[in-house]
Design brief:
Layout lengths: L1 E8 L7 H12 L8 E6 L6 H9 L6 E6 L2 E5 L2 H25 L7
Length: 110
C-alpha cells in the first residue's frame, strides 16, 4: 500500500489551516510514519505536483490522501474517514510491533 498526502500552500505562502491541523494530528498520533509521499499543491505554482495530481483526480479540497493498494486507488478528502478506514489497521499493526519489542528488548538489535 502506498499513501500520498497532498497539502496546500496558499497564495500568501502559508500552509492552509486545515492542512496544518491534519499534519498536527498525524504527527501527534505517530501516523505520519505511514505516509509514503507528501506533495504540495501550491496556489502560486499551477504546475506544482500536488495541483497537477488534484486536477488529474478531480479533487478540489485539501488536504487529501491518495491510497494505492494493489492497483486500486482510493481518495480521501476527510482525515477522520481516512484515519478510520486506512490507518486504524496500520496503527494496530504498529502497536502490536511496539508491544513485541517492549516485551522482547533483545529484538531491537535486528
Amino acid at each position: 500500500m502506498k499513501i500520498t498526502l497532498v497539502k496546500k500552500i496558499l497564495a500568501s505562502g502559508k500552509l492552509c489551516p486545515k492542512c496544518e491541523d491534519v499534519l498536527d494530528r498525524l504527527e501527534k498520533t505517530d501516523q505520519m510514519s505511514f505516509i509514503d509521499q507528501v506533495l504540495i499543491a501550491d496556489e502560486r505554482d499551477p504546475e506544482s505536483e500536488g495541483l497537477r495530481l488534484a486536477k488529474k483526480l478531480g479533487v478540489e479540497r485539501a488536504p487529501f490522501f491518495v491510497v494505492e493498494d494493489g492497483g486500486d486507488l482510493k481518495i480521501y478528502t476527510v482525515y477522520f474517514k481516512f484515519a478510520k478506514e486506512v490507518l486504524s489497521n496500520e496503527t494496530t499493526e504498529l502497536e502490536k510491533s511496539k508491544e513485541i519489542l517492549k516485551d522482547n528488548i533483545d529484538l531491537d538489535y535486528i
